[in-house]
Amino acid sequence: MSATSDRLQTIVSNVKKASILKALERGVRLDNRKPDEYRPLSITLGYAKKADGSALVKLGDTMVLAGTKLEMDEPFPDTPNQGNLMVNVELLPLAYETFEPGPPDENAIELARVVDRSLRDSKAVDLSKLVIIPGKKVWSLWVDVYVLDFAGNVMDASTIAAVAAIYNTKLPKVEVNGEEVKVLTERTDVTPLAYPVVTLTAAKIGNFVVIDPNLEEESIADAKLSISYTPDMRIVGIQKSLGGAIKLEEIPQIEEVTRKAASRLFSELKNTFGIA
Predict the structure, then answer these.
(1) Measured between alpha carbons, how far is 115 from 86 in angstroms, rounded to an integer?
(2) 275: confidence class by pLDDT, cuts 50, 70, 90
(3) Quick one: how far is CA 132 from the chain centroid?
(4) Of 3.10.150.10, 3.40.50.1110, 3.30.1120.10, 3.30.230.70, which CATH number belongs to 35-273?
(5) Span 244-270, pLDDT tens digits
(6) Which end of the chain is more exposed for a tag (fewer CB within 10 A), N or C?
(7) What is the pTM of this model?
(8) In the chain, what are the domain boundaries?
(9) 83 torsion bin: left (phi>0), alpha (psi -120 to 50), beta (else)
């Protein structure tokens, strides 16, 4: 990028930041949301018909598709009575103009780790339900998350999509004869999801904190803090991103805002498909 382009980009960013800050001083955002309000959420279960479970999530203009696949496998030696869980996230080139094909970059890796950690540390996925023969045969649950439209806060949308896709996953019926396992075409009504987990991201812009930042807000934010919760409001993960600082005394204020938003999000999930 040329020096002229860099200067122009800086000017545009400064003007944008000034507009956003001026709106926040009035208690609103440029998209007419309140600082503690997230964008409209829609969840479509079973969107990918060939997956074992799937969900398409739209959070404002951000769109994420998650799908699951079950594969018969052996348990890990240190967890003989648990199935296996693997999470992968891809930022597809069609999602944003600067995304390129190829191996996952650091952003996709960070997303995958946060989603994986939220699912594991919360015990939201009951890995014992994935056991077929203890110590011998289990299901490996693969969760693939694809960002289709990058319009800000893909972290929260990716967690919701993963949770919804796992909820939509029903385990196959099997016949066990000794150590032989026959997988039947029928499905049980058992889902490996014990309960949902949600991630709420707050962006610090100047002296203000906003929930569910859109792409414009993310582009001028000083820092972001993503906090994951279980339905009983237990914190099971915290991830700080962007280069700016968050003071220790600011964290309780941010957590209070994310906690209230998480409570509303759990209520919305319950009303949408009854997993809370």
Answers:
(1) 10
(2) low
(3) 28
(4) 3.30.230.70
(5) 888 888 899 999 999 999 999 999 888
(6) N
(7) 0.90
(8) 35-273
(9) beta
